[in-house]
Amino acid sequence: MKKDSYSNGLEAALSLMGGKWKFLIIWRLMTGKQRFGELRRMVGGVSEKVLIQDLKELADDGIVRRIDHKEVPPKVEYELTELGETLAEACHPLCEWGKKNMAHILDLDDPTRSNCALKRKRAAAAIDS
Fold first, then answer.
1. Residue 78 and residue 55 in contact, taking contact as beta carbons nearer than 8 Å
2. What separation in angstroms does the CA of 27 have from each of 5, 86, 95, 109, 113?
3. pLDDT higher at 19 or 102
4. What is the pLDDT of residue 106?
5. SS3 state of residue 43
6. What is the separation of C-alpha 47 from the centre of its chain, rounded to a whole number of angstroms?
């Protein structure tokens, strides 16, 4: 949900990047142009519908460029814009943090732990729906 003003930079960035798939799409596009099918394989778990919707929103927001080669069969590629490249660079520290803390994060999802992880998953699912 975009609005006219934000209280801080994180709020503004998250208004563009709602949901986990957009971050993963941007991360995969850092390696260069990708066709839709390649992106779908690289961003495992995303449905075709969500990928199409997120790519359209990212293109509308100026983060991703859609390149239609006007060929038969159709050939469409996606790449990051300059703005998208700067956003991808901003993802690096978060990725490094995730790598550094992966064992702890995995432990949080351990079903033998208290039900805190279950409550967190339910809360996340409620937000996504």
1. yes
2. 27, 11, 10, 23, 31
3. 102
4. 80
5. coil
6. 13
